[in-house]
Design brief:
This protein has one domain (10-433). Helices cover 62% and strands 1% of the residues. The chain contains 19 helices and two strands. The protein has a two-stranded antiparallel ribbon.
């Protein structure tokens, strides 16, 4: 009895959430490390760990060629890992127990509500079941559309697996591809581009947003929540602005001489994919510095809460911009759509962004310190942008790279593994899992100069 009480006391919701990802990563590591998962020589343990973490955290960074180095079993294993990692293993546990007629524990409900919902709802279990049904339906449609295109180049069986793999990878915002050049070979293909972009956006805006939008158009919901409005508007704005800047910055470089179709598709694709999905149709290492900076910003922002993506989230970015605007206007509150955002949410937003920035700075510094590209002082200075890009990509669970992933040494790989994990579970959630919340003392207030 004492052991159960002790276990219940220490197994907090954040710890269970973080622990489920750790368990899945460890399981995937040993599976990918096994000889039957590779088509050639076995993977080094650190490479298996890197690949498993990247799949579970739906990042997409890889130190191997998934289509060449992994066997069919290994490829299926990565598919299962980023499917479980995208929705969360606890989500599947809830569905399983629900089908078995068993109830849901308080902590399980707490974890899933914080994962998918912005406010507690009575129809919680209906939403969780709907999440699984929606996931299967969207991935099935995506698989069908991609199959129609891949069937022109591959035998039916291979075409179906290619379509399934890329559809699941896109919806879960992973970016793992079975092609050596990712999707660069389909740069001007409308069907491939539109399907993958649609899957990325649907997987990245959050399940509760999809749920509310569908219920609103079906007449079951009178008003879309403030959260969903912010997410939809911010997502649309980032896509349009990103595509416009990409086309402008690359008009004389990567897009020089390209057809109008290719310019449009490439611009929108590279605007959507940095928002936590690492597919690419152009060579990232060949982009201009202005474009690289824009991609870093988009990767840091990431997807939306309650989705399969990472980053600080679109809602956090929107609230930060509204806070800055309010301060410049001399207004303390954040008001939008005739609603006032609670100050507790604003404080949490600032904490998330600062924690994310500190994590990125720390890991980038570690990559630079552990650089072994040269012995002379400053030999690795030319890789600063590449390392910063790699770190932000890992934190945002994006998977885009400027080509340095395969050149990382073991210490650098472990650093990227850590930031991928932090980016997936969230820096604050990870901090809460280590520290039990304690109510602090309140003393007399005294002013401090800032700014």
């Amino acid at each position: 009895m004492k052991f159960k009480m002790l276990l219940a006391r220490h197994l907090t919701a954040p710890r269970i959430f973080v622990g489920s990802f750790l368990l899945l990563i460890v399981t995937g590591t040993f599976f990918l490390w096994a000889p039957f998962s590779v088509s050639g020589k076995p993977l080094r343990f650190v490479d298996a760990l890197f690949s498993s973490t990247s799949a579970v955290c739906v990042t997409g960074l890889t130190v191997i060629d998934v289509g060449r180095d992994l066997s069919g079993i290994g490829q299926v294993a990565t598919l299962v890992l980023f499917q479980l990692g995208g929705l969360g293993i606890i989500t599947f546990s809830v569905i399983f127990f629900g089908l078995m007629g068993r109830g849901l524990s308080f902590r399980g409900r707490e974890i899933l509500q914080s994962t998918f919902l912005h406010t507690p709802r009575r129809d919680f279990l209906r939403i969780v079941r709907w999440v699984l049904l929606l996931t299967v339906s969207i991935e099935a449609v995506g698989t069908l559309l991609l199959f129609l295109r891949f069937a022109r180049d591959f035998p039916p069986g291979r075409a179906f697996f290619q379509a399934l793999y890329h559809a699941v990878s896109a919806f879960n915002n992973c970016g793992y591809s079975l092609f050596a050049d990712n999707l660069a070979g389909f740069q001007g293909d409308w069907l491939i581009n539109l399907t993958v972009m649609g899957l990325i956006v649907l997987g990245g805006i959050g399940f509760i947003v999809l749920f509310e939008v569908i219920d609103f158009f079906r007449g079951r919901l009178k008003r879309i929540s403030l959260h969903s409005k912010i997410v939809l508007l911010t997502t649309a704005a980032l896509i349009r602005v990103g595509a416009g800047f990409f086309c402008f910055f690359e008009s004389r470089d990567v897009l020089a001489g390209a057809s109008t179709d290719t310019r449009v598709l490439s611009s929108f694709f590279q605007s959507i994919t940095p928002r936590t999905c690492g597919f690419n149709t152009v060579f990232i290492g060949g982009l201009t510095n202005a474009t690289i900076l824009m991609l870093i910003i988009l990767m840091f922002i990431g997807a939306s809460p309650g989705s399969t993506g990472g980053g600080i989230k679109t809602s956090s970015f929107a609230l930060l911009m509204l806070m800055i605007r309010g301060r410049l206007q001399g207004v303390d509150e954040v008001n939008i759509f005739n609603r006032t955002v609670p100050r507790e949410i604003l404080a949490r937003t600032v904490a998330i962004i600062i924690a994310a920035a500190i994590s990125v700075i720390a890991v980038t510094s570690l990559l630079l310190l552990a650089d072994s590209s040269g012995a002379s002082p400053g030999a690795g200075r030319h890789l600063f942008v590449e390392y910063l890009f790699e770190t932000v990509s890992a934190f945002g669970t994006v998977g885009l790279s400027m080509g340095v992933t395969t050149q990382l040494n073991d210490i650098q790989k472990l650093a990227i593994i850590a930031i991928m994990f932090i980016g997936r579970v969230g820096p604050l959630t990870l901090a809460f899992s280590w520290n039990q919340s304690r109510r602090g003392l309140t003393y007399a207030e005294e002013s401090v100069m800032v700014g």
